[in-house]
Amino acid sequence: MFEIKEVKNKRDLREFVNFPFDLYKPYKLWVPPLKSDEIKQLNPDTNPAFKSVEAKFWIARKNGKCAGRIGAIIQHDYNTKNKVKAGRFTRIEFIDDEEVSSALLRTAEEWLREKGMQKIHGPLGFNNLDNQGLLIEGFKYLPSVASVYHPPYYQKHIEKLGYKKENDWIEFRLTMGKAAQEKANRGAAMIRKRYGFEVVDFQTQKELMPYLHPVFEMFNHAFNDLHYVTPFSKEMIDYVGKKYFKVLNPKFVKVVKKDDQLVAFIVGVPSLSVAMQKANGKLFPLGFRHILKAMKEPEIIDLYLTGVEPAYHSAGVAVILFAELQKEMLAHGTDQMETTGIFEDNHPVISNWKNYDHIQHKRRRCFVKNL
Q: How far apart are the first and last CA of the chain?
C-alpha cells in the first residue's frame, strides 16, 4: 500500500519532522536539527516568512510506514524581484525507492503547476538562511550546521526525473598557518590606517543585540545580487535574531565601522555539529549542555556570514574581518575554519582562501526543471 498525504495537522507535522531521524540512523555524519526549531519553521503561526510565501508539505507512506517527505514553496518576493514564475521543492527526504521519490516530486510539481509556476528548482528553503542545495560530493565529511547532508542515492533519483544543474555551492576547510596570520595582520593594519576603519568587538549578548537590524539591513543589499536571495523584512530580522543571534558566542562576531557607519561584518560560529549530533534533535535534558560546551570550547569555527557594503568592496575591509577573527580563534586555541556554501563562480571570495592551507571538500547543487 502506498499513499501521498498532505501535512494538515500537528500530528502530520511531527511525522514530517521526525522522518529524517529514522532515515539517517545508518549515516553517522548527518547533523540533525532541533525538532522544536523545525516545527516552528514550518508553522505559518510562528514563521513570518509565510507572509511572503505559499507552501505545502507532504508525506509518503509505504506499507504503513513513512517512506519520504517533500515541501513546495512559492517565494513571491523572489519571483517579483527576478520576474519569474518559479517554485521550490524543499526538505526532500526519501528511502532508496523510485516509486517514493518520483511520487513526491510529481506531487510538488503538480501543485506548483496548478499555481501557475513555469519551473521548479531546489532543494531551496524559505530564504537563503534556510536549507539550500543537495549534497553531491563530500559524503565522508561532517557538515556544518549551516550546510546539508544527504544519502548519495538522492542525486541519481532526482536526475532520473529530468532535473538538471542550475547552480553549485562549494565548501572549504581552511587551516591557518603562521604566514597567513602574519599577512592578514599586516594587511589589516595598513587598510585601517588608510581608510580610518574602526573594529567593534563584543563580549556579551547585550552588546551584540543592537547590531542585529543594522547587520541584516546591510545584508539585504550586500547579498542582493546573489542567486535565491530575498530581502529580510523587519519582522523576519527579529525572527532570525531570536533564533540565531541569541545563541552566538559574541567574541566570534566582528563589525567594522567608518564614521560611525557599519561597513562590514563577519559572523563566526563555534562548530556545533558534534554537539547537535549528541543532542539528537532535543535541547533537554542534555542537548543544551552539549551545545553550550561547544560554544565555549570551539575546535572549529564555521564561517557563517560575511557581508561588506558594496561601496567598500575594493577597500580590502574583508582582510580586517579575517585578521580580527583569527586573533580570537588563536586565543581560543583553534586554527580550523569551515566555510559555508560559496557559489562556484564567486571567484573573488574563493581567491581569499589561497592564503590558507585549504581543501575544497564538499559540493551541493540546486537542480531545476521546467514545468
A: 28
Q: How far is residue 262 CA from its own chain's centroid?
A: 23
Q: Say yes or no: do domains 2-168 and 177-334 share a fold.
A: yes
Beta strands in 141-239 (DSSP E): 164-175, 198-200
- With CA atoms as reference, report the closest residue to 328 among 269, 265, 275: 269
What mean pLDDT comes out for the span 148-166? 98
Q: pLDDT digit string (tens) for 21-48? A: 999 999 999 999 999 999 999 999 999 9
| In the chain, domain spans | 2-168, 177-334
Quote the cell numbers at residue 116: 501557475
What percentage of the chain reaches a pLDDT higher than 70?
100
Q: What is the mean pLDDT of residues 283-295?
A: 82
Buried b (16+ CB within 10 A) or exposed e, 310-348: eebeebbbbbbbbbbbbbbbeebebbebbbbbbbeeeee
CATH class, 177-334 region: alpha beta
DSSP strands (E only) in the chain: 2-6, 53-62, 65-75, 86-94, 119-122, 134-137, 164-175, 198-200, 253-258, 261-270, 301-308, 336-339, 342-343, 357-370
CATH topology for the 2-168 domain:
Aminopeptidase (3.40.630)
Residues 325 and 174: their CA atoms lie apart, in Å, by: 13
Q: Is the peptide bond before 152 cis (omega within 30 degrees of 0)?
A: no
CA pair distance 188, 165, nearest whole angstrom: 39
Kindly tell me if the per-residue pLDDT of 178 is higher than 90: no
Nearest C-alpha neighbor of 219 from the set 188, 253, 263, 257: 263
Pairing of strands 65-75, 86-94: antiparallel
3-state helix, strand, coil in the chain (%, to 5): 40, 25, 30
Mean pLDDT of 62-70: 95
pLDDT on residue 164: 98
Written as nine digits, the cell of 280 is 539528537
Quick one: angle between helices 234-243 and 212-222, nearest 10? 120
Q: Closest Cα partner for 129 from 237, 39, 23? A: 237
SS3 333: coil
The pLDDT, as a whole number, for residue 141 is 96
Count of H-run helices and E-run strands, the chain: 13, 14
CA-CA distance, 174 to 336, in Å (whole number)? Answer: 6
